[in-house]
Amino acid sequence: AFVALNKGSGEAFCWGSSSQGGSCSDLSFAGITDVYSTASAFVALNKGSGEAFCWGSSSQGGSCSDLSFAGITDVYSTASAFVALNKGSGEAFCWGDPTKGGSCSGLDFAGVTDVCGNEVAFVALNKDSGEAFCWGDPRYGGSCSDLDFGFLSATG
């Protein structure tokens, strides 16, 4: 599915499979600053107010009504999960398929400068220290504790 948004007017329309986010005519996009997607879900965010809503496949990130997006600076995705990050505070939360990056409780995002997702896993990097951690499906990059990312540091 796709979404087209005019940020100035708040007008939007979606198309594609309705179960995967292709139907959004009942949603209000007024004030939305950013839209992010997995393969089957979307999140629309107003970074200034912290208001957000999700739609599409609930198991792949289309359900987020119980989450608070206040202070979120960045959102990243795999094909089935999202991670929302406040780079200033290091606070983050994940939702969507827990086996494909949608579960990140217990991870420390303090100092994270970049996050990258593939289809089923994430890596979070602190470029200043050269430290990184991964989560999601370990067969496809969701496990990296045995790797040394120190050569990526700003001082390395």
Write a brief structural summary.
The chain is mainly β and 156 residues long. Helices cover 0% and strands 37% of the residues. It has strands spanning 2-6, 11-15, 34-37, 41-46, 51-56, 74-77, 81-86, 91-96, 114-117, 121-126, 131-136.
Percent of residues in beta strands?
35-45%
**Which blocks of ≥5 consecutive residues have pLDDT under 50?**
none
Radius of gyration from the alpha-carbon trace, in angstroms: 16 Å
Q: Count the strands?
A: 11
**Main beta-sheet strand count, sense and barrel state:** 3 strands, antiparallel
How do the helices and strands follow one another from N- to C-terminus?
Answer: EEEEEEEEEEE
Question: Strands across the major sheet, in which order?
Answer: 3-4-5
Distance between the termini: 42 Å
**Number of alpha- plus pi-helical segments:** 0
Q: What class do helices, strands and sheet pairing give?
A: mainly beta
Helical fraction equals under 10%
Shape: globular
The average pLDDT score comes to 96
How is this structure best described in words?
It is a single chain. With 156 residues, this protein is an all-beta fold. It has strands at 2-6, 11-15, 34-37, 41-46, 51-56, 74-77, 81-86, 91-96, 114-117, 121-126, 131-136. The chain has a 3-stranded antiparallel sheet, with no helix packed on it. A 3-stranded antiparallel sheet has the order 6-7-8, with no helix packed on it. The radius of gyration is 16 Å and the shape is globular. The termini are far apart.
